[in-house]
């Protein structure tokens, strides 16, 4: 699984729902932060930040509950349904602390296997926001990612060695202006840069950009280097940025659909398909502490 490094999130977001059933069904008590604080943020500033602190802490500033849920349960926005409006609109400052040395800053290990911090964040959400939810599979709009006959431009990475598993992988050091480590994706609101990833991993990254599940139907094998840049469409419900915020506009850049076709020789085809979703049964705004 590739490591997704986005300007908007502090830890991995892989779009798997296999852990989400535990929100309502698991009888096993999850480990929890020792100390938590949740306070409303009324600043009106839509910029949000989440960070994992090496000392065992977690801090979030001006985040929505939806942001917390997507990160904690490894979901995309389109996988959360029946959530009340305030889950998206209301903003919160969250501070939490685990016993020092009990957790490390780490990326999610693989789809469906949350990091230590994500498990702690799940417990915080279920305790402070009283989240109760269940998993369903629904027929929703998806995109099939297909290869254009005779026009595939995907470049195989010179290194076809599978990247090491993410178990206990430390968060990579920032590499702005440097090379992207093998098996990583750097993603912004209007671009994807990746080295040594599968097409299935590219499809997950496109799901994040498009706000709709993208399924790999290309039959292409191997690891690829990918570079895509497009003009964001603010009418699209993208997960990767808040459309009310300024974002880069590249003069003359194509739409994401054209960029995919012309850049890598693949095409998005609208379809209906099964999508795992998390249905919110009940949730409460927390009391301030």
Write the layout of secondary structure elements.
Layout lengths: L2 E4 L28 E6 L8 E5 L3 E7 L1 H8 L7 E2 L4 H4 L2 E6 L18 H13 L3 E16 L7 E2 L27 E5 L2 E7 L1 H12 L3 E3 L7 E6 L26 H9 L1 E17 L7
Helix pairs in contact: 1-3
Quickly list its features.
289 residues, alpha+beta, 2 domains, five-stranded mixed sheet, four-stranded antiparallel sheet, 5 helices, 13 strands, 16% helix, disordered N terminus
What kind of oligomer do you see?
single chain
Provide the gyration radius in Å: 19 Å
Distance between the termini: 38 Å
Q: Could you describe the largest sheet, including whether it forms a barrel? A: 5 strands, mixed
Structural class: alpha+beta
Beta strand count: 13
Instruction: Specify the overall morphology.
Output: globular
Helix content: 10-25%
Give start-end ranges of low-pLDDT stretches. 3-22, 167-176
N-to-C order of helices and strands? EEEEHEHEHEEEEHEEHE
Adjacency order of strands in the biggest sheet: 1-9-10-12-8
- Portion in strands: 25-35%
Query: Average pLDDT, to the nearest integer?
Result: 81
Structurally, how many domains make up the residues?
2
Q: So how many helices?
A: 5
């Amino acid at each position: 699984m590739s490591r997704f490094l986005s300007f908007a999130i502090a830890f991995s977001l892989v779009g798997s729902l296999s852990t989400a059933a535990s929100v309502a069904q698991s009888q096993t008590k999850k480990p929890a932060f020792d100390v938590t604080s949740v306070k409303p943020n009324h600043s009106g500033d839509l910029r949000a930040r989440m960070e994992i602190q090496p000392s065992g802490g977690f801090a979030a500033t001006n985040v929505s509950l939806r942001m917390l849920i997507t990160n904690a349960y490894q979901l995309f926005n389109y996988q959360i349904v029946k959530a009340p409006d305030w889950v998206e609109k209301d903003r919160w400052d969250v501070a939490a602390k685990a016993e020092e040395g009990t957790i490390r800053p780490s990326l999610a290990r693989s789809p469906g296997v949350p990091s230590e911090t994500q498990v702690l964040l799940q417990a915080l959400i279920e305790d402070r926001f009283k989240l109760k939810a269940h998993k369903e599979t629904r027929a929703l709009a998806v995109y099939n990612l297909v290869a254009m006959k005779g026009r595939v431009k995907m470049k195989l990475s010179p290194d076809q060695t599978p990247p090491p598993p993410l178990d206990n992988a430390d968060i990579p050091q920032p590499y702005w202006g440097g090379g992207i480590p093998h098996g990583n994706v750097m993603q912004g609101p209007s671009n994807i840069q990746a080295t040594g990833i599968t097409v299935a991993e590219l499809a997950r990254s496109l799901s994040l950009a498009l706000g709709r599940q993208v399924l790999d139907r290309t039959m292409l094998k191997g690891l690829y280097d990918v570079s895509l840049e497009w003009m964001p469409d603010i009418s699209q419900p993208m997960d990767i940025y808040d459309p009310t915020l300024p974002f880069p506009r590249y003069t003359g850049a194509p739409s994401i659909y054209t960029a995919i076709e012309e850049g890598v020789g693949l095409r998005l085809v609208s379809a209906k398909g099964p999508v795992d979703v998390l249905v919110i049964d009940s949730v409460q705004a927390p009391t301030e502490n």
